[in-house]
């Protein structure tokens, strides 16, 4: 899908760029990408869902693609609560009635957060990987050395040297992360380049840097959202029906997330597939199948 098919809808703070697939009367699904990906991660997932009667929306998250802030004065904030609120406001702006949410990486985090905070706004959740709500306080403590090595980019972004590196080398950093996180996926350079064009957003660097500095306690979030982060720190159960997915070749999730089941109080099923971090592009039938399984549960 080329950029002529990208649409724009305004929320309180953003002009959100998105793509849509399927008939207007289809059951609504919002699929959310992460870093360093874009909305086109779901290009091969959407046809499976449309064939089953879905109306699929794939927004570009803040700082990516053609999504823009409505005001220059708005803080370029990327904490999990605000990215979750973006999804809820996106659904409201389009008049969607309790859509299914699905996502991976940042998009999985934002979708899980939205499901935990506003369960009455959605009908179900597909999450890669597991209960993907960030424990901000725990995130600020050391992980195992092997996982700290995998998270080198997060450490890089804590310094101004890291910001400079992202400004000058966003294309190369993104490609390197694709290679490291999906070690068995031989993606085409054209496929990557199409996504990397979304990193040319004028807010990309500020959003990425804030996301990881907030997680590591180096920058603050929006004080008006602190009550939401306080709720998330309590590890609230997700009560909407949920299908979670793990990829066995993902170095960011060693051992998988099967032990996350305790945080889902509604109907829940866990699926494991032989893929890396970018499940929608590495295994589109499996990601679509998780959404379809969830839809079959709903009344």
At a glance:
Residues 28-147 form the AB hydrolase-1 domain. By secondary structure, the chain is of the alpha/beta class.
Note down, in words, how this protein is organized.
This protein is of the alpha/beta class and 299 residues long. The protein has a single domain (3-297), classed as Alpha/Beta hydrolase fold, catalytic domain (Rossmann fold, 3-Layer(aba) Sandwich). It is 38% helix and 16% strand. It has helices spanning 46-51, 80-93, 106-117, 136-139, 145-150, 152-156, 160-181, 189-196, 204-215, 226-233, 279-282, 284-297, and strands spanning 7-10, 14-21, 27-32, 54-59, 68-69, 100-104, 124-128, 242-247, 268-273. Strands 1, 2, 3, 4, 5, 6, 7, 8 and 9 form a nine-stranded mixed β-sheet that branches. The longest helix is centred in the middle third of the chain and has 22 residues, at 160-181. The protein starts with 6 loop residues before the first strand and ends with a helix. This is Alpha/beta hydrolase. It comes from Mucilaginibacter gynuensis. InterPro entries: AB_hydrolase_1, AB_hydrolase_fold, AB_hydrolase_sf, Epox_hydrolase-like.
